[in-house]
Design goal:
Length: 206
């Protein structure tokens, strides 16, 4: 089946997203595990991805857990340290696809404010042909609605989309709609998939 557009997740595909590594560096792995077991940091972050305000969501959670007050606030105050670098080869693949004339779309669970911070730090994130951010849409992957919005807004039939994401549940939801998919584990296998699909040459994917 020919591919008319490639859809990228962002976190852990184009930029690193490593809150656990950040906390390990600050308080050690043992205390980080304790923190994440006692405080629903990732659940709070999903609320931000749905469009809840970033700072007030983090600070409200900190107020609910005074024993971890400072550490929870780091999620807001030190957020950029949790996305410490781009993943250069995947960025090159995105740009190589565009150079070949293949549209590239973003489909990402991201907060409104954090997405702006990420774009300021990594300007290539403004380079997608279309960008679908969960906070703007008020729904998140793997909910069917967010995939339906992309289909509707781009006009690309599901079977002609190739989607890469690092989370199996997001891949499964896309596959259930008829999308072609690739579970992202590292840039090299994804590059090979793009070559296999005829979207890039070996040289372009290097």
């Amino acid at each position: 089946m020919p591919i008319d557009a490639v859809v990228f997740d962002i976190g852990r595909v184009l930029i690193e997203w490593e809150p656990e590594r950040f906390y390990d560096s600050r308080i050690g792995e043992a205390r980080r595990r304790q923190l994440f077991e006692q405080v629903p940091l990732h659940g709070m972050n999903l609320d931000v991805d749905r469009g809840h305000p970033f700072r007030s969501s983090v600070y409200a959670l900190a107020d609910q857990h005074p024993e971890w007050h400072e550490e929870i606030r780091w999620w807001h105050d030190c957020w950029l340290q949790m996305v410490p670098r781009a993943i250069p080869r995947t960025v090159r693949l995105m740009q190589a696809l565009q150079a070949r004339g293949t549209p590239v779309f973003a489909l990402s669970n991201f907060g409104a404010e954090t997405f702006e911070l990420a774009c300021e730090t990594y300007p290539f994130l403004r380079g997608f042909d279309r960008t679908f951010v969960s906070a703007h849409l008020k729904c998140i992957k793997p909910e069917p609605e967010i995939y339906a919005i992309l289909e509707r807004e781009t006009g690309v039939a599901p079977q002609h989309l190739l989607f890469t994401d690092d989370r199996p549940e997001n891949i499964q939801a896309a596959r259930a709609r008829g999308w072609q998919t690739h579970l992202f584990t590292a840039p090299a296998p994804f590059a090979a998939r793009l070559v296999q699909a005829g979207l890039l040459t070996d040289q372009e994917a290097a």
